[in-house]
Automatic annotation (TrEMBL):
<dbReference type="GO" id="GO:0032259">
    <property type="term" value="P:methylation"/>
</dbReference>
<keyword id="KW-0949">S-adenosyl-L-methionine</keyword>
<feature type="domain" description="Tetrapyrrole methylase">
    <location>
        <begin position="4"/>
        <end position="207"/>
    </location>
</feature>
<keyword id="KW-0808">Transferase</keyword>
<dbReference type="Pfam" id="PF00590">
    <property type="entry name" value="TP_methylase"/>
</dbReference>
<dbReference type="GO" id="GO:0008168">
    <property type="term" value="F:methyltransferase activity"/>
</dbReference>
<comment type="similarity">
    <text>Belongs to the methyltransferase superfamily. RsmI family.</text>
</comment>
<dbReference type="InterPro" id="IPR014776">
    <property type="entry name" value="4pyrrole_Mease_sub2"/>
</dbReference>
<comment type="function">
    <text>Catalyzes the 2'-O-methylation of the ribose of cytidine 1402 (C1402) in 16S rRNA.</text>
</comment>
<dbReference type="InterPro" id="IPR000878">
    <property type="entry name" value="4pyrrol_Mease"/>
</dbReference>
<keyword id="KW-0489">Methyltransferase</keyword>
<dbReference type="InterPro" id="IPR008189">
    <property type="entry name" value="rRNA_ssu_MeTfrase_I"/>
</dbReference>
<dbReference type="InterPro" id="IPR014777">
    <property type="entry name" value="4pyrrole_Mease_sub1"/>
</dbReference>
<keyword id="KW-0963">Cytoplasm</keyword>
<keyword id="KW-0698">rRNA processing</keyword>
<dbReference type="InterPro" id="IPR035996">
    <property type="entry name" value="4pyrrol_Methylase_sf"/>
</dbReference>
<protein>
    <recommendedName>
        <fullName>Ribosomal RNA small subunit methyltransferase I</fullName>
        <ecNumber>2.1.1.198</ecNumber>
    </recommendedName>
</protein>
Length: 282
């Protein structure tokens, strides 16, 4: 008989949010794989729980090397509990590799649902929640970050991001450039903690606020792109958008394709507009 891999959600702030099953799993697991064993110790103390199983570290630096070891434990019949510092394992945290490896070996994988910064921020944002997508952390380099944002500039679903506080102002400024200064957003800070704050407003306004300095765990929720139709963008505007992307470093072919997606038009229409403008010497 193979064992079971249990992914357990942990509090993102308030320890009282810990699901009751978390304590049971911590006490009964044969192996507890923790992103930070020191934080795990603080968690078990706060919950009044004592782990009987073996505790091992499982973080980004040793995830690849430790996964086979944990799979062997599972194949031997062990109940392995995976916890990260906050929230659900695998969601911008260690866990995906272990889940994929366990599934490949036909090992049962289950979860203890728990707090989620993504869903909490989305619910508090005041923005549409019927359709959304989670984009995780953006690249640290400015050029790569702006390029990634431009890829989803026409996305109509609400977007959710994680970000470090010291990069928040730069990220919001890049979002204002890629999505438009007036695109609505919400910055959710220190969710469920003592100094919880949700700041809502246009991206440009939020970027100015963040430039003064922000601290704590950050989740950013951004409104999706507005509905647009081909009739709203004339040839001049199509050419302008292509030029903006080219000036930012995109190749013309890529820029035309991206603008076509934004405008809801065939690529040929945008291409013809660019060619016509070139012939006219614009």
């Amino acid at each position: 008989m193979t064992g079971t891999l249990v992914l357990a959600g942990t509090p993102i702030g308030d320890i009282a949010d810990a699901p009751p099953r978390l304590a049971e799993e911590l006490a009964g697991a044969d192996v507890v794989a923790a992103e930070d064993t020191r934080r795990l110790r603080r968690l078990t103390q706060a919950l009044g729980v004592q782990t009987r199983g073996r505790v091992v570290s499982y973080f980004e630096g040793n995830e690849s090397a430790r996964t086979p070891e944990l799979v062997e434990e599972l194949l031997g019949g062990a109940r392995v509990l995976l916890v990260t510092d906050a929230g659900m394992p695998s969601v911008s945290d260690p866990g995906y590799r272990l889940v994929a490896a366990a599934v490949e070996k036909d090992v049962r994988v289950t979860a203890v649902p728990g707090p989620s910064a993504v869903l909490t921020a989305l619910a508090l944002s005041g923005l549409p929640v019927d359709r959304f997508c989670f984009e995780g952390f953006l690249p640290r380099k400015a050029g790569e970050r702006l390029s990634r944002l431009r890829e989803v500039a026409a996305e109509r679903r609400t977007l959710v991001y994680f970000e470090a506080p010291h990069r928040l102002d730069d990220t919001l400024a890049a979002m204002a450039e890629a999505f438009g200064a007036d695109r609505r957003a919400a910055v959710c800070r220190e969710l469920t903690k003592t100094y919880e704050e949700v700041r809502r407003g246009p991206l440009a306004e939020l970027a100015r606020w963040a430039a003064e300095g922000v601290r704590g765990e950050i989740t950013v929720v951004v409104e999706g792109a507005p509905e647009t139709g081909p009739e709203e963008l004339d040839a001049t505007e199509l050419v302008r958008r292509v030029r903006v992307r080219e000036e930012a470093g995109e190749r013309r072919k890529e820029a035309i394709a991206a603008v076509a997606v934004e405008a809801g038009l065939p690529k040929r229409v945008v291409f013809d507009a660019v060619v016509a403008a070139k012939r006219a010497g614009e």
